[in-house]
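Exercise 3.2. Students should predict the tertiary structure of the chain below and write it as structure tokens, then compare their answer with the key that follows.

Predict this chain's 3D structure.
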Amino acid sequence: MLYFLSEWSDGGDAFNLFRYITFRSGGAFFTALLLSFIFGAPLIRRLRKMQKTGQPIREDGPASHIIEKAGTPTMGGVLILGTLLLSTLLWARTDNGYVWIVLLVTFGFGAIGFYDDYLKVTQNNVKGFSSKARMGLGLIIALIAGYCASQLHSDELSGHLALPVFKDTLLNLGVLYLPFAMIVIVGAANAVNLTDGLDGLAIMPVIIAGGTLGVIAYIVGRTDFTEYLDVHYVEGTGELLVFTSALVGSGLGFLWYNAPPAAVFMGDTGSLALGGALGAIAVSTKHELVLAIVGGLFVVEALSVIIQVAYYKRTGKRVFLMAPIHHHFEKKGWGEAQIVIRFWIIALILALVGLATLKLR
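Answer key:
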């Protein structure tokens, strides 16, 4: 919205600053962070008053969770999504299609997660929304987003899969591209959701992955950078840096309240929305495979559940003491803070590896 102030500029005044994505990205970051600090505590008090018993805790989970986390309110993702939306609309170009695609996915999955959290809290059980219905709605949102992104992509890129490292290689997926894009978006949403099991565990890797994808979006949206790095140019994606900067600001503001011991959980409201956002950015920038590296921690968490379920159905035995894998390490005696910080380190390393693919050839 503020971008349009630049139309009043003669090129030598303060209004000219609003032309620059980097300036507006900084504004989005600080706006989201400030709003989180202003509204965070009142929102948590409100959620605690409304929910009373807080988020239902899995009885089959680590025994310490039943004692230590009982009564903690959920739906803290409302804080993330509210500050993210306001900051993005304020600082991003609202005539950019990619911004609206990512917002559609973020708040579409956020609505699904909100309803799931609402059912869990009001019915006081961990089941919530039907998994089939949740998956179906997610696929519909992902289909719309994937189709819109493919329409915005150039003819050279639309329906194609770009390969990291092999920069000149494009695989023409044809009619298979939309199902692939749907899998990327829905898979990312559910992978982050599975990761959100310890205080602060999911939000920092989301911040790291989101910030990394924002840098990638900015790079692939500039012809000078893409020519130098020999990566595919995707016109208009640079504006997603504003969104990811707001995401980082919202995430850090939320982490202030979610740091151990958490005063609030993000719930499915936040985890599904943020995971979907990462998937949508990857699809928009044609870096779907790089997302699997940058968000490798989420991939491992999701795979641990898939492996556990598949192996147990086949043999009646478990590969891990408990899935997702962060609970496996809890069962082995690792402390919660120890797991969280070590997983953060892994997420940061994977993000750097993902960035390195821009230069490697």
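Discussion points: The chain has a mean pLDDT of 92. Residues 189 and 276 are 4 Å apart (CA to CA).
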